[in-house]
Design brief:
The complex is a heterodimer of chains A (117) and B (116).
Chain A lengths: L4 E3 L2 E4 L5 E6 L6 E7 L5 E8 L14 E5 L5 E5 L8 E8 L11 E2 L3 E5 L1
Parallel strand pairs in A: 2-10
Antiparallel strand pairs in A: 1-3, 3-7, 4-5, 4-8, 6-7, 8-9, 8-10
Chain B lengths: L3 E2 L4 E5 L4 E7 L6 E7 L6 E7 L4 E3 L3 E6 L4 E6 L8 E9 L8 E4 L3 E6 L1
Parallel strand pairs in B: 2-11
Antiparallel strand pairs in B: 1-3, 3-8, 4-5, 4-9, 6-7, 7-8, 9-10, 9-11
The chains are: A mainly beta (117), B mainly beta (116).
Chain lengths: 117, 116
């Protein structure tokens, strides 16, 4: 597609349930990022994938959080046994590569809004 | 740890005025910086970027200034319009020592409100 696509756009789940959030990056983009944004807050880095390299998981807040990526395409962020503090927007972004340059803009999706009740 | 921060959490300007949004960074290894605009309910949108070998870059109505001596970044918006009302984030792209991958780290954001 033309941009980064995320689904679902909104998700309400009960505390203790598992959720899966999906990200389709821009075609040809090898780098993929997941961020979390709580209401009125900045963006918190979660995990980063670059090609076939081992992902950088340093931002995952607990072992309830995990993410997978199939090759250089779709990524899924899974939150197990959700808690109320997991309520946030989960943003996915992609870029052509990890090397920073003016031609390597990082594009964001619209986010998946998660509410845990 | 090293982080990116913003001086002002909120900024209110009159339509037509120029706006300046500031950002301080502390990671001297950062060599690429980006400004994003985030409107309510939407994902961050790329505005302008700058590499560390530059001190100024201009776009359409926007200018980014980089002062590496004091590790300061600013975004200037000329003739601010109501449609510019949003949260603005600066971000730095840096590679940790010994690491091979870059990571984009965001500041907390500044809410810009443009009054008609």
């Amino acid at each position: 597609g033309a941009g980064v696509s995320q689904s679902p756009s909104n998700k309400v789940t009960e505390k203790g349930k598992d959720v899966e959030l999906r990200c389709d990056p821009i075609s040809g983009h090898t780098a993929l990022y997941w961020y979390r944004q709580r209401l009125g807050q900045g963006l918190e880095f979660l995990i980063y994938f670059q090609g076939n390299s081992a992902p950088d998981k340093s931002g995952l807040p607990s072992d309830r959080f995990s993410a997978e990526r199939t090759g250089e395409s779709v990524s899924t962020l899974t939150i197990q046994r959700t808690q109320q503090e997991d309520s946030a927007v989960y943003l996915c972004a992609s870029s052509r590569s990890s090397f920073p340059s003016s031609g390597n803009t990082i594009y964001f999706g619209e986010g998946s809004w998660l509410t845990v009740v | 740890g090293e982080s990116v921060g913003l001086h002002l959490p909120t900024l209110s300007v009159q339509e037509g005025d120029n706006s300046i949004i500031n950002c301080a960074y502390s990671n001297s290894a950062s060599d690429y910086f980006i400004w994003y605009k985030q409107e309510s309910g939407k994902g961050p949108q790329f505005i302008i970027d700058i590499r560390s070998n530059m001190d100024k870059r201009q776009g359409q109505r926007v200018t980014v200034l980089l002062n590496k001596t004091v590790k300061h970044l600013s975004l200037q918006i000329a003739a601010t319009q109501p449609g510019d009302s949003a949260v603005y984030f600066c971000a730095e792209n840096s590679r940790p020592r010994g690491g091979s991958n870059y990571k984009l780290t965001f500041g907390k954001g500044t809410l810009l409100t443009v009054n008609p």
